[in-house]
Every structure is written in C-alpha cells, then in structure tokens.
Amino acid sequence: MNRFLAHLVRKLIKTGDLTVTSADGTKLRLGDGTGSPVHLRFKTAEAERAVALDPNLKLGECYMDGDFELEDGSIYQFLELVFKNVRRHKSTPARWVKALEHLRRIPAHLLEWNTLRRSRSNVQHHYDLSGELYDLFLDPDRQYSCAYFEDPSVDLEHAQLAKKRLISSKLIMDREGLRVLDIGSGWGGMGLHLASQFNAKVTGVTLSDEQHAISTQRAREDGFAGQVEFRLLDYRKLHQSFDRIVSVGMFEHVGRRHYSTYFNKCAEMLDEDGVMLLHTIGQSEPPTPTNPFIKKHIFPGGYIPSLSEMLPPIERSGLVVTDIEVLRIHYAETLKAWRTNFLENWDKAKELYDERFCRMWEFYLAGSEIAFRWQDLVVFQIQLAHRPDAVPLTRDYIGRNEHAPHRAKKASESARKKRRAAAK
C-alpha cells in the first residue's frame, strides 16, 4: 500500500469501521469497529498515489473513473465516516495536503474574475445540462436550492413550497402590483409563486438558455405573460428600479472580487422604501477555498462566502442589514432527498449521459450533503433595505405572513383568467 495513503488514513480515522484494500491486496483496518463497516478497494497504484497526495480533488475523480470501489457501504457512508472523525476528533490532513490547499488559495483568488462572458460560461456548464436530468431528482417546481423543513416528516415538494413562503414573508409582499426582480431566476418557480400568490409584476434574469426557455414557457402556459418576464440577461446590465429584489442560490456564483459590484447594483435598483432578500449557501467559519472537485467539475467560478466577506461590501453599498437567519441542516435534508431520487433514477440518468457522469453526480450530492451535516456549510437568508424602518419593528411578522392566507391570490387568479381569455 502506498505509504502516504496509509499515513493519511491512520491520521484521520479513529472511530468507525473502515477497511482499505490496496491494489496489491494489502488490507488496512482502521477505527474502533463501531458502526456499519465500510470497505474501500483500490484498483490501481496510481489511484492510491493520487488520492494520497491530493484527496480533496482526486478522491472524487477516482470515484468518477471507477479507480476504486466500495465493497461494503456506499460513497456517502465512506465520506460520512471520514468527516465524523474530522469533526469529533479534530483530525487534520497530513502536512502535504494542507500545504497543497494553501497553494490553491493564491490562483483561486487571481482567477475569480467572473466577467460577463465568464459568468455566462460558468452558468451554462451546470445549468444547461439536459432538463430531463433535473426532473430525475428535483421537486416538480424544479427548486434547485435549499428547502425549508418546518416538519422533518414533510416531503421535498412541501418543503420547497415552505421555502418560497418563508422568502415571500421576508420580502413583505403587502400590496398588489409590487415590481419584483428575481436575480438568478432558475426555472421560474420563485417568480411565478410571487406572481400567483401576491399578484406581483416579476422580472427574472438568468444566464442559462435552458432555464430561460423553460421559465418563459411556464409563464406563458400559466397565464402570466405580460406580468412575469424572464430575460436572458446578466443582472449587471439591468437599468430599472424595483420595489422588491429576491435572489435565491445565485450569490454563490458571483465571486469574491465582484461582491461590491453586486451589492452596489442591488442598492441602485432597489427603491428607497424597498426590501431585498438574499438566500445563499455560506460558511459558518472563516473563509476557505472552494472544494477543488466542486470547482472543477460542478460549479466553475463558484465560491461559498463567509459573513465576514459579505458584510463589508453590504455596508459600503449603503444598504442596511435588517435581518439575518441561518438555516442549519435544512440543506442536508434537501440534498438527501435529491440524492435518494437520483439513485432511484440512476439508469435514466445513465441513458442521458454515461456511468462516469452518474458517479460524478453521486459524489457531488453525497459530498455536499456531508458538508452541510458535518462541516461548516449553512444557508444565510439576509434581508436588506435602504432604511431601517422599511420593515416592521419586531420579527414576529415573518411567521404571521408565512402562514397567513395570501390576500392577493384571488385578485391574481382573476387577472390571469382575463389574460388567458384575451389570448384565445
């Protein structure tokens, strides 16, 4: 067995039941024997060496390529065992692994220029995959962001609806006809929710051709043509003002170098008495580089912010932070549901792409869930305004708005019927 690999796993694994078999047949048993057994078998000495020297990148790549197999357990169980040990025993990687991650910080910072062209390319890499793929694991509304599990027993569809209701309550949709901007509008679910429930006039922007086509089609078919417009446009090119701004799962693609640009632009577009709600993945600990596997294969140009990186540019923009909520574990449960759905539809995904893609996607979903359960990833919901009195004095309005009947829904449905009749 590669001696660097043996040193690394001995340093990391103190509890649990892990067996690692090398390509030459050597077996290494680790942990205290508790829990379900996990057995990882390497097929090549090259894979052992690659994982030993650069585990954060090469573990996922070797799994994609089939260079190791799980003879007992799954990739999720293996990652869970590793990161439980890291958390419980404060286990740390070997010195050479930490040195490599330190070296990654320098080029990562230099390359985080998400220009208009690069931003579009980064978005297309992930979101312009076949729409059929996302149908295999997302809820029917295609909400591709953290759901809100008010009750742990609810299914994914209801948890995603609860997320939209929570966000709507923080936007304070207190009158009809509010002009709403949805930055990173995805497949249109959030914008259509605001239009159908609160009779809002919504402008959504996305850089994904696939998302733009589907969201535009949904708006037309649901009778919201003229009330909801989805545009294939970078938010930086908008020159309008809005009563409300919402952004869900988009800020992770902005990049640290562009935080000031983002918040300055939002401040420019938000009316003086307006309210904004930003929903983003974040780190609960000090800033660290994006996982190299995720950055290379899943979200190029992506970066997960800490609050310490977000608050200074917010303050400089002139916006006021009126509320911050940290959603913990909710994204782990969301990812669990996605991973379960994906594994159930593995053969269909394989028909769309291939076995290597399926293994890559499984590793992405499993690793992301682990990061929310056992590492420092959370979700921040940050409410912003120009004036501190733009939102109610006490926070209890959020719960009232979240569960109150939607006053504008009847008016919105009436307007939609008229538009459908006119279209005929």
Describe this structure in words.
There is one protein chain. The mean pLDDT is about 90. Strand 1 and strand 2 form a beta hairpin. The strands form two sheets. This protein has a seven-stranded mixed β-sheet, with helices on both faces. Helix content is about 50%, strand content about 15%. The protein is built from 18 helices and eleven strands. By secondary structure, it is α/β, with parallel strands linked by helices.
Give the helix/strand layout.
Layout: H1 3-12, E1 18-21, E2 27-30, E3 38-42, H2 45-53, H3 55-64, E4 68-72, H4 75-89, H5 95-111, H6 116-127, H7 131-135, H8 156-171, E5 179-183, H9 189-198, E6 201-206, H10 209-221, E7 228-232, E8 242-248, H11 259-269, E9 270-283, H12 292-298, H13 307-317, E10 320-327, H14 330-344, H15 346-352, H16 355-374, E11 377-385, H17 397-403, H18 409-423
Helix pairs in contact: 1-2, 2-3, 3-16, 4-16, 8-17, 9-18, 11-13, 14-16
Structural class label? alpha/beta
| Strand and helix order | HEEEHHEHHHHHEHEHEEHEHHEHHHEHH
CATH homologous superfamily descriptor of the largest domain: Vaccinia Virus protein VP39
Give the overall silhouette.
elongated
**Percent helix:** 40-55%
Beta-strand percent range: 15-25%
Find the count of extended strands (DSSP E, 2+ residues).
11
What is the CATH architecture annotation of the largest domain? 3-Layer(aba) Sandwich
Low-confidence stretches: none
How many domain units? Answer: 2
